[in-house]
Specification:
With 88 residues, this protein is of the alpha+beta class. The chain has helices at 51-63, 65-76, and strands at residues 3-7, 10-13, 25-30, 33-38, 43-47. It contains two helices and five strands; from the N terminus they run βββββαα.
């Protein structure tokens, strides 16, 4: 699963198709904990991360929603996703 961004120790990744499934989403991990985020709604699907980390991830997702959607389309066609700028 390629990394598409990293900030504050949080790694953002997307799987390649055919392993992926709807809804369009990405995975975030931090120190062995994980979250899955719906790209369309910028909402947490599931997470065992802290509220602080979830807020950072959602803020980043909202800023880069169009790029995330474009990356989802790439991975669904078995193409590599593009790097997305980190949260600053």
């Amino acid at each position: 699963m390629p990394s598409i961004s990293m900030f504050y120790g949080i790694i953002i990744r997307m799987f390649f198709a055919p392993d992926e499934h709807n809804p369009p989403h990405f995975h975030a991990s931090y120190q062995g904990l994980d979250a899955t985020v719906d790209i369309r709604t910028c909402e947490i699907i599931n997470s065992n991360l802290s509220k602080k980390h979830n807020k950072l991830i959602l803020a980043w997702a909202e800023l880069h929603q169009d790029e995330l959607i474009a990356n989802w389309e790439l991975v669904m066609n078995a193409e590599a996703p593009q790097h997305i700028e980190a949260l600053r």
